[in-house]
Amino acid sequence: MARKVNPFLHRLGIINDWKSRWFNADKYKQYLRNDIELRTFLEKKLRSASVEDIIIERSSNSLTVNIHSARPGIIIGRGGTGVEELKAEVTKMVNEKLDIKINIIEIRNYELSAKLVAQTIAEQLEKRFPFRRTLKQAIERTMQNKQAKGIKVEVAGRLDGAEMARTEWLSEGKIPLQTIRADISFAKYVANTTYGVVGIKVWIYKGEVFEEKK
What we know:
Oligomer: single chain
Largest sheet: 4 strands, mixed
Order of helices and strands: HEHEEHHEHHEEEE
Helix content: 25-40%
Number of helices: 6
Distance between the termini: 32 Å
Structural class: alpha/beta
Strand order of the largest sheet: 1-2-3-4
Strand content: 25-35%
Shape: globular
């Protein structure tokens, strides 16, 4: 079962929190659609900034966007001009009179983020690096961090320009997909190579999360 379910959703509400933190029964559809459009826009605009996650929080008169990035300087810009531009564009998209705040949160251990590892692999595949060497280097970088207990990387498509598409994967350590208390970072990404699209999946196991004793 755990092999068919997204590892993040499998643990949602147990050790993972929601990425949209609000509830409004009257405007639920509007806010949900607005959140999806905001995330899509920000991910495209900030693709070079190594964005791992975008958390959106709402209240009756405010909207807060928390952007987790490994390259915060690219988003902030000189003298904070980048944040001001983002704030103006988000205000237009929201189309409501709200107090909008944008927080940039730096990610220091980017090798523990499945999404950032997948982005790095995609960039190298698009530059025609051999896929096996790319996967091995990504696994080595992650496992050098002692917090990582295991990693699995899977790629699918016309690898290295092969005529037929196939799926290849490499792993190191352990990945307990069925253990709900296991803290697993999972991400899907796409590399647009000259031979076609290559799909990338990354699982990173960071140990177990236990409930603190009250």
